[in-house]
Amino acid sequence: MISIKTKYTLTKHAHDRFHQRVRKGDPKAWTNLAIERGIPLEDGNIRYGDYLIVLKDKMVVTISYYNDQQLRDFKHDVVKTIVNKFKRKLKPLLKRKKETQIEIYEAKIRELKARNPKVVASIAEHIVELEKDLNAVSTEINDLYRIAQMYHIQRGDLNG
Question: Model-level pTM?
Fold first, then answer.
């Protein structure tokens, strides 16, 4: 541990976070100034500018960004909204895909039962059209999944 001139002790972790986040000046002097001039929070920590100084007893545990604490709920709400938009867009497409698959299977059963070559040919044409529709819907679904990945939303988050 690195000792501060005043009554607080700076942990190695806090020292490392200082160099990672603040990057300027002396960690001891900056932390002293921040504790003296910072805004005390209800939980006993100190807010100094954009930084949150986490204290435990007389020890500086870490130096974090204050906005990270404030914006967590907001970020969660934004992600939830984005996921819901994707789900709303996907739901009719997934339903259409399932219905098309069922139609294909039923048409294949009718094709197997049919004896007239003209009926078999007609059903085969219908199956080809259904498979084209299925491919189009599948492509649209995969495009949405690809776009969702750009927002760091995984496929499993959208299927739930």
Answer: 0.57
